[in-house]
Amino acid sequence: MKKLIISVILFIFLGLGLWTIKAPQLEAQSGWRHPVPCCLTAGSLIYARDGNTFSPIDAVATGQVLTSAGTSTVPAYSASPSITGLTLSGDLTANGNIVGDAATTITGVAAATFSGLLTGSADALLSGTTPQLTIGDAGAEDTQVVFDGAAQDFYVALEDATDDLVIGLGSTAGTTPALMIDQDQEVSIIHRKHWLDTGNITLTLADCGSIRMIATDAKTYTLPDTSVVGPGCEYTFINTGADDAVLLTVTPDDAVADGIFGTIAAVSMTGTDDGDLTNTKSGANQGDWAKIVSDGVTGWFIIGGDGVWNGA
Predict the structure, then answer these.
(1) Are the CB atoms for 215 and 246 separated by under 8 Å?
(2) Does the pLDDT of residue 61 top 60, yes or no?
(3) First and final CA of the chain: distance in angstroms?
(4) Which CATH architecture best describes the domain 194-311?
(5) Per-residue model confidence (pLDDT) at position 87
(6) Burial track 230-244 (b if 16+ CB lie within 10 A, e otherwise)
(7) CB atoms < 10 A from the CB of 248, how many?
(8) pTM across the whole model
(9) Which range (51-55, 75-79, 86-90, 268-272) has the least confidence?
(10) Fewest CB within 10 angstroms: 74, 129, 279, 305, which?
């Protein structure tokens, strides 16, 4: 009788031991959720099987993920994890790349922090009553937006070395700048200063500040309307041809009543409507030059020059 009782007790203990070992395997194979708190550690995740697919059990809905200090950690399970239907109400921190398509939406995130590359294949929209995009973290480095074109790249940057806002060609802040704004709101526009011309030229606002050099005979520079370019537009003309070989003409816009005023060498320009300023071929020397500036109202004023000139 004692042997029978002992045999029954051993059978019961052995059966319970086998059940304890088999239960987690049964859970993984059949999808039956069996709480096994003895086998989970903080940050662990239980997977449920549906056919041939294993999916993580929702921590909020089932409470199957044990956490430490209220933080649940999902272990990395592939080189490019995919998260579908994710809604966040707190902070989002990503240390790898986040790739989104047209259906990717992140809403209600208090603060999204990305230390990797953020890539999107659709338009980006910042909405709300006071949307703001901040680039940089007050560090001592260049911050910029680069426009990656097929043939040319351009950038808009805060250059740390000068503390200027710079727009330029390329993708490196501060190189080949076209426009610069400093802390005093002083704006500098970089023009191509020197031009070696070979034909007739009609000048525009974009040419203001340029130096025009010419060695070709009988060519004319036509000035723009001073009311269009405004006051302060300057042009410099230089005869780079051989002595007595180049006739250079500067003429105001025929469509408006602009004139040229001032004195250069022995010639006095009186502002006659559409009166031309010419560097005469006979007697002209290589290096003869003239510099004029607009007043934005009546015409152009000579502010420097030398050589053999003629005019009205």
Answers:
(1) yes
(2) no
(3) 141
(4) Sandwich (2.60)
(5) 56
(6) eeebbbbbbbbbeee
(7) 30
(8) 0.47
(9) 75-79
(10) 129
What integer pLDDT is reported at residue 297 of this predicted model? 92
- CA-closest candidate to residue 122, choices 146, 100, 92, 155: 100
Residue 306 tokens read as 């030398």
CA–CA dist 72, 44 (Å, integer): 8
| Of the listed ranges 32-36, 99-103, 155-159, 275-279, the one predicted with least confidence | 32-36
215 Cα distance to chain centroid: 41
Domain parsing of the chain, residue ranges: 35-71, 88-120, 143-189, 194-311
Residue 223: CB partners within 8 Å, gap ≥ 6? 203, 235, 250, 251, 252, 253, 258, 292, 300
Residue among 196, 242, 247 at smallest CA distance from 219 = 247
Residue 106 and residue 124 in contact, taking contact as beta carbons nearer than 8 Å: no
Asked if residue 236 lies in contact with residue 291, where contact means CB atoms within 8 angstroms, the answer is yes
Q: What is the pLDDT of residues 207-244, one digit of tens each?
A: 888 999 999 999 999 999 999 888 989 999 999 999 99
Residue type, 200: N
Which residue in the block uniquely carries the two structure tokens 């109202």?
A: 297
Highest mean pLDDT out of 43-47, 76-80, 125-129, 194-198:
194-198
Q: How many residues are present in the chain?
A: 312
CA atoms within 13 A on the CB side of 29: 5
Say how many C-beta atoms besides its own lie within 10 A of residue 39's C-beta: 11
- Picking from 160, 165, 168, the residue whose alpha carbon sits closest to that of residue 181 is 165
Is 75 strand, coil or helix?
coil
β-strand 219-222 against 248-251: which pairing, if any? parallel
Q: At 308, which amino acid appears?
A: V
Cross-strand pairs, 197: 214
CA distance 96 to 171: 24
